[in-house]
Amino acid sequence: MSEPASISTGIAARYATAMFELAEEAKALPALEKDVDALDAALSESADLRDLIHSPIYGRDEASAAIGGVADAMKLQDMTGNTLRLMASKRRLFVLPALLSELRERIADHKGEVTAEVTSAKALTKTQLDKLTKSLKAQVGKTVTVKETVDENIIGGLIVKIGSKMIDTSVRSKLNALQNTMKEVG
User: Which GO terms describe its molecular function?
Assistant: First the structure.
């Protein structure tokens, strides 16, 4: 059974807060970041792992043992493995992708970093990326990591998302705005 997104986000946020604070106290944030990266990669690559976290056919004990085995095989920190086992015993593994996202955000914020999702019609050159990164850093006052995607449908320009803010300078959005203006006039 699928949970509403807000419930999943809330659950993930609580687990993320606990894990982040424990790792911060133990001065183990770099290790936690490695665990997050490893789990994220494993989720991307393994259909079996995705099935384990989403499928209701696995009982609490089975899921806990399976995710514990995964954590041990991946040599994750004890705290991460124990959290995954706890999540399995509480039938909360379905929030793992949201948990990883929350942890990634908290770690980046702690390091003074922010991720900008940039969509362009064509791949940006190294020079363009450097200029954009420098400009965004000046705007937000933090180190900016650019996650670039290409979408030819925007025709030209950029769409930049940083957190909840979005700057849309795409030709597509300008054409849509012009079309809406013309509808109002006519």
Answer: proton-transporting ATP synthase activity, rotational mechanism
Residues 6+ apart with CB under 8 A from 67: 52, 53, 84, 85, 87, 88, 93
Residue 93 makes CB contacts below 8 A (sequence gap 6+) with 52, 53, 54, 63, 67, 84, 87
Beta strand ranges found along 66-128 (DSSP E):
113-120
Q: What is the pTM of this model?
A: 0.74
Q: Which amino acid is at 70?
A: V
Mean pLDDT of the chain: 92
What pLDDT shows up at residue 186? 63
Domain boundary among 88, 109, 130: 109
Distance, in Å, from the CA atom of 130 to the CA atom of 104, rounded to the nearest integer, reads 23
Which CATH number does the domain housing residue 42 bear? Answer: 1.10.520.20
CA distances from 66 to 1, 28, 49, 50, 55 (A): 20, 25, 9, 12, 13
More confident residue, 182 or 186: 182
pLDDT in tens, 22-78: 999 999 999 999 999 999 999 999 999 999 999 989 999 999 999 999 999 999 999
Domain that holds residue 174: 112-185
